[in-house]
């Protein structure tokens, strides 16, 4: 019996600049404040920003 590898899916679009900023925060090249400012400029609501940070 052949087992397939588990698949990972995304149910939301993630903007490339958000991913870039998240990587910079993780690498210590940017702060969480920088990420907050980017998400604020995108016009996200409180819940959406919270979900974006958890992704």
UniProtKB/TrEMBL annotation:
Domain of life: Bacteria
Protein name: Uncharacterized protein
